[in-house]
């Protein structure tokens, strides 16, 4: 891939026309778009097309491939409300101003089960060791090249984002810091929260210490995602 000066590669993944690409930035933006919006280039070394429009000082920290699923805003709102109730989410969250207010639709048990089966769990970790799990249905499918939507609370109290990628509830993750410390913890011990909410403490970083790497630890025979 031909990279302009000052640009570096973040990730490379295998995908097909039934997948979506999700890009997440350090300043808490996320954009999700179908893989079909990225054309097949003639040459392996082609520069590529814009995935997300970055604000000044921002950078992409994670690129993931997740399952594509068609759902209207009303279905998404209804599913997410039920999903949060099941996860015991009780925190008061400010409304996401970037999403149009929609009336929650009524989901049949069959439709809820269909959306649940297609759901990816998105792990997000910040430099100060805060983290959360969110539903992939909380990230709307939009066209590539925009600024995306919030992937963390506006205040960014947990610091800049360092990683965001899909995990399974049975996985574990390994976090490493700038001072050489590391911790391994189960994904099911991290709180489920909405896309625009803040995270909870996963790693207690010291003064001047930051999380610099997050790796997904899966069962033998599966791939690992790391940032």
The H-level CATH homologous superfamily of the domain at 71-138 and 150-217, spelled out, is: DNA gyrase/topoisomerase IV, subunit A, C-terminal
Please mark out the parts with pLDDT under 50 across 5 or more consecutive residues, or reply none: none
Q: Give the CA-CA distance, first to last residue.
A: 19 Å
Q: Supply the number of helical segments.
A: 2
Average of per-residue pLDDT values: 88
If you consult CATH, what is the topology of the domain at 71-138 and 150-217? Neuraminidase
In the CATH hierarchy, the architecture of the domain at 71-138 and 150-217 is: 6 Propeller
SSE pattern, N- to C-terminal: EEEHHEEEEEEEE
Radius of gyration: 17 Å
Overall form:
globular
Structural class: mainly beta
* Number of strand segments: 11
Q: Can you describe what's shown?
A:
There is one protein chain. The protein has a domain at 71-138 and 150-217: DNA gyrase/topoisomerase IV, subunit A, C-terminal (Neuraminidase, 6 Propeller), CATH 2.120.10.90. The strands form three sheets. It has a four-stranded antiparallel β-sheet, with no helix packed on it. A four-stranded antiparallel β-sheet has the order 7-4-5-10, with no helix packed on it. The protein has a three-stranded antiparallel β-sheet with strand order 9-8-11, with no helix packed on it. The mean pLDDT is 88. 11% of the residues lie in helices and 27% in strands. The protein has 227 residues and is mainly beta. The protein contains two helices and eleven strands. Strand 8 (172-177) and strand 9 (182-186) form a beta hairpin. The chain is globular, with a radius of gyration of 17 Å.
